[in-house]
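Quick one: structure for this chain?
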Amino acid sequence: MTASHELLLVVAAALVDPDGRVLIAQRPEGKSMAGLWEFPGGKVEKAETPEVALIRELHEELGITVKEPCLAPFTFASHTYGGFHLLMPLYICRRWEGEAKPLLHAALKWIKPRDLMLNADAYPMPAADLPLLPMLRDLL
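Got it. Here's what it folds into:
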């Protein structure tokens, strides 16, 4: 990482339903990487832990309530984009309150990780998310 690459800490969740599917969310028009599919989450603000940030982001983005004990640290992504380096812890979450709705995304989709890998053209994802898919496939 060079001085021109700011470190950006974001956090994401693989919400897992009883059928072993994960929730992906499509980035809306007007945002960077618009149209790509991602795991829900977002930036960790100052004075926030990753867990607190993820709980906040999931409520803002999807309208669901998650309790901290329901977030299980799973893995992380580390990827350099243009002018910044992204560090993204990924948590597994199997329990939440409410039904996920696309409050800030263009669309939501529940899909098995292996199907997501087989249909990569149908659900293009940011480069940082791609290495997470085989790990989720093996877990689920």
